[in-house]
């Protein structure tokens, strides 16, 4: 019996620009039915307001409720910035919610000590860092986190200039690598750079989509039991 996975998006980046999540689900959960729910303005609102307002959290709750009404078996949140809002949304739906960066945060907490969190949108830095710190605390590990913003790179990517985006992110990663022992890419939109950044920095570089979707696949399998 195939499962229905609802993906919640806060921009069209994974719907039209970077189909990485769809590709991974097709590979790892091939019989799943995937439906998409997009609020393409809520991330812009969070960036503008420099945080998640009650209204922004409510918008994610509405997306989750729409996904549940559509018969989703599980909800996958594709946006790291809105992670805390999904904790709020989870309280108003019965459908399980999986965050794209949950598994990555668990791995970083287990394996990293000085962790560099690299982002191209300022709003992902806090939620990703907080998630890693929380997971580290749960297992009794002490980690230090250095946050680094690659300002403007996300806008460059959305304008279609991948090469310039990649150059900007690589430059920041190389500098960050001087003071950390692991780099966490806090947005899935940087995913395809993980391999080259690992080669250039010689550090472990974690990116959320594959480990996030592998974790989703595990949760989907548990639903069938």
TrEMBL record:
Transmembrane segments: none annotated. GO terms for molecular function: amino-acid racemase activity. Belongs to the HyuE racemase family. This is Asp/Glu/Hydantoin racemase. It comes from Cryobacterium psychrotolerans.
